[in-house]
Amino acid sequence: MTKRLYHENSYIREFKATIISCTPYDNNYALILDKTYFYPEGGGQPSDSGTIDNWEVLNVIEEEGQMLHIIAQELNHKNVECKIDWNRRYDLMQQHTGQHILSHCFLELFNGKTDSFHLGDNSVSIEININDFDHNRCNIIEDMANEIIYSNLPISAIIVHEEELQKFPLRKQPSVKDQIRIVKIGDIDYSPCGGTHVMNTGEVGIIKIIRWEKLKESYRFEFLCGGRALKDYRYKNTLLLSLCARFSVKDYDLDKVLIKLADENKTLRKDNAYLKRSLIKYEAEELYNQGEVIQNTKIIKWIFKGRKIDEIKLLATEITSHPRTISLLGAINDTAQIVFSRSDDVDIDINLLLKTVLPIVDGKGGGSSKTAQGGGNATQNLDNLIEKAYNLVLSKI
Length: 397
Ligand SMILES: [Zn+2]
Known about the structure:
Blueprint: E1 3-4, E2 14-25, E3 28-33, E4 35-36, E5 50-52, E6 55-57, E7 59-63, E8 66-71, E9 79-84, H1 86-110, E10 113-119, E11 124-129, H2 135-150, E12 155-160, E13 180-185, E14 189-192, E15 207-214, E16 219-225, H3 226-247, H4 254-290, E17 292-294, E18 297-305, H5 309-319, E19 325-332, E20 336-342, H6 350-357, E21 363-367, E22 371-376, H7 382-396
Parallel strand pairs: 1-4, 18-19
Antiparallel strand pairs: 2-3, 2-9, 3-8, 5-6, 5-9, 7-8, 10-11, 11-16, 12-13, 13-14, 15-16, 17-18, 19-20, 20-22, 21-22
Helix pairs in contact: 1-2, 4-5, 6-7
Bound molecules: zinc ion.
């Protein structure tokens, strides 16, 4: 069985090993070594990456007690040089150790037990079994977690048997029964864990909760430690400075300025909608006045170019607010669009009228007996469609 040396020293970045076997695995090869410092995926933590004889280690997985190093190449020789992607490993150790500290603080301060932990390449989250949380609690817990970091407590691991467990004030119960590995932070936190950790809490650098959401019976927290927190701070500071420059304000005033702008925008939109409606009414009157009166019924037909369908619908509504009116409007946009309407006192089925003429523009659409809307791709035939509809109206009134 492969010796798991990452448990003995999680700071080794390069090592030599001997190949025990190399067998096909899916479309790649699974390499078993006599010993390894590569951490396999598990316990909410992804596997290490790196190289074996310069071949990229695609994944490290544990199957039936064996550690499989997945690579794309079959290796037939015996001795190999292994390198762990140290930046990634150190990042994962910072986040993982940070989780131990944060879980400890949640339990101490709010009696919140950690239900689950997820450590990905981009996000770290824990689910804590508590009912309430707010910004004040967030500050309290961050203060405590960062105090533990400043105290630079040593982190170590011991292997114990099940009967020895009662000697330790464990934060959670182990999932294995034999050879239980307990990770100790100073003498404040004891937790069974098979992952990789930094040697002192100071190496975690900083812990910052960046967001949380309420679940059914718990809260999920996303947080960042060490290098990830610095990267996030850089990004947010750059964003803040750029926004402050854009609006010519100091950072503490930015939210007030943005709220004011949003309010102004809302008012302007409202005013704009009112003005648009007034203009539409005016335009509708002009169109109405240009209509022909036939058999005591006013018929308005018009084709617009590049006009929004919503505006055409409003025009149709305004025009047919006059008694004994029929409005046949079309627009050439990317496609041909049509809006037919009538006033309440005209006895014509507008939906039927539209459906009769729509094939002229290869169109589809429908509506009620009073108003209907459609569209089609044959824009060049829109004139014909409106004329055909007009003639049908003439034959029915
Ligand atoms: Zn751990």
